Structures are given as structure tokens and as C-alpha cells.
Amino acid sequence: MQKLLFTLLAFVGFSVATMAHEGYHVGETISNFSLKNVNGKNVSLSDYKDAKGFIITFTCNHCPYSVAYEDRIIALHNTYAAKGYPVIAINPNDAVQYPSDNFENMQIRAKEKKFPFVYLHDETQEVAKKFGALRTPHMFVVQKSGDKYVVKYIGAIDDNWEDAAAVTEKYVESAVNALLNGQTVAIPNTKAIGCSIKWKK
Amino acid sequence: MLSRLLICTWCLLCSFRAFSQEAVVPVFGLKEYQQRVQQNNDTLYVVNMWATWCKPCVEELPYFDSLRTEWKDRPVHFIWVSHDAKSRTKQVADFLSKNNYTAEVFILSAGNPNVWIDQIEPKWSGSIPATILYKNGQKTGFHEGDFPDKKTLQDFIHAKQ
Known about the structure:
The structure holds two protein chains of two kinds.
Chain A lengths: L1 H21 L6 E2 L3 E4 L4 E3 L8 E6 L5 H17 L6 E5 L11 H10 L5 E4 L4 H6 L3 E2 L1 E8 L2 E8 L15 H10 L13 E3 L5
Chain B lengths: L1 H22 L3 E2 L1 H8 L6 E7 L4 H16 L5 E7 L6 H10 L5 E5 L4 H8 L6 E2 L1 E6 L2 E7 L5 H11 L1
Parallel strand pairs in B: 1-4, 2-3, 3-4
Antiparallel strand pairs in B: 2-6, 6-7
Helix pairs in contact in B: 1-4, 3-6
């Protein structure tokens, strides 16, 4: 009996751990959040009254993959913000282990690159955990449906981080275009190579 | 005269060393990766996915290097697969030379990550570091994330080989 109980407990413990790790899936509704932007003001999804959805990216300053994608993320915002899908960039990295990812350096980077989108600091890492973000950059396209925000795409920006000119599949663009045209997203999940998110120790 | 000769020899050695180090970091695609790690023999292939700029990766390399030295007479072969950009072979070579690392290293440049990550390991999210074990052409272990110390890495290899 004791053995069974132990097995059962171990199983429950394991499932909870896995569930907590996995985060949101495509088709699920996300909770709103409020995080500090580089201008010092808090931003939440409900602030965007006219948005049809969001291109949310977990990113940071130090990761070369993130840096390689900065210009493409800026381009995404410049194309899709006006169409109702602004970019929301969130940096979840532990600033103690990675001082280059602290709030002050986020402000510097946002200024240097003239980020046209908000760049939010997930200081407690709660938002990244809830999303199940694993690496930077990690993209989540969400669509507003009434007062809900539904995940429609999770994964990579495109298929070539090293060379923007050699990209053949623009996953995020295709997903947002499909949503704007009232279609289903053809490829709702992709994988990308990225820097692991630096969790607090 | 002698000192001049010595300096010349030293310069020659340095340039030779730099040259030979640079030459040892090839850039491989997925097929070459699979050919290297999936071999039909009893050797255990310990494959570490890393990059020179990846801090947790670089922090765990000494554990891999130390086990490699310790196990040099065992059928265990370490391969460090770099995810640095393919244009950075020199930086990778410089990093290895600076740290006196002599493990087998190549840069993986395999096209669309959405395709090759799953082909290497469906459970892998694509973040580095990650470690994969192969024996007799089969995958025997996978670990995503860094190892906190050498013993944890050693235990992982022992449990999965």
C-alpha cells in the first residue's frame, strides 16, 4: 500500500513538474501580464485597445541569436503593428548571472537600436515560466478573441538565424498573415536553436 | 645570433600552431554529423552542443575535458559540436587553443533548425547546452541544459551508456 502511495505521489510530482515546465500550447488562452518597459512604465496586453493580437518575443541583450534577429524583429513590428499585431519583447534573463541583461542595459540597447516596440523586463521570470519560454529568441503569436488572448503560433522567427538574406521560411510572418486573412496557421509550432533562458539560482 | 634564431624559431612555431589549430575546426552538415556520431562500434560517443559565446556551455566544458583525459584508455569519444556561426571558425579555433582543449570539434551548419533539431532529438527544444550519447549507432541518452559539476555529468554518462 505504502509502495503504491509512493509511486502515485512520485507520479503526481512528476506530472506537476512537467506541466509547470511546458507552459502554453497553441490553442490555449494566455493570462494578461503587466511588466516594466524600458521607459519605466508598466505595460500590459489590455493597454492595446486596438490590437488584433501580438507578436510576443522572449529575447535579451547578450544572446547572439537574439542579436542576430534584432533587425528582423524591428521589421516585424514595423510591418505588423499598423495591421494590429505589435511586437512585445520580453527579457526574462537573470541579471545577477548576466549583468548585460539587466534593466539599465536593456534601456541602453533599446536606445542604441531605436526599438520601435516595448522592451519589457520580466524580473521575477514569472511570465516566461507561465509561457513555457525556453530560449531566446522564442516567439509566441497570440490572437485577441473577445477579451481572451489565444496562442496561435510558437517557435522560430524563420529558418535561418545566421543569414537573413538566405531565409526561405518566414514562420512568424506566415502565421500573422494567415491570422489577418482569417485563415488557420499552417505551421503552428517550430523549433529554433537559441540561448537557454538564464533562470535565477 | 642565437637569440635571433630562437625568436625566429618561436615565431615559426607560433604561426605553425595557429595554422594547425585553425585547420582543425571543420563545418559539417547534418549528414556528416550523423556519420560522426552514429557508428557501428562499441565506442560511446559523448556529444556536447555548445558555442564559444554561451556562458553555461563554456562553464561545463572543463568537466567534459577532464573526463576525456581520465577516460582516454576507454572506448569513449567526446565530440564538441559548436553552434557558432560558420563564419567564426577562427574564433572557435582561438578559443580551443587558448584553453588547451584538444577534443574533436566541428561547427554544425545544417540549414533549417526546425528540421534538423528534431532529426537529432525530438525532445530537444533547441537551447544550448545539450548533451547526447550514442553507442552502436543508437542514441542512448539526452540531456538539455548544463551540468552543475563533473560528477553529475559522469553519473549521467554512466547511467545512459
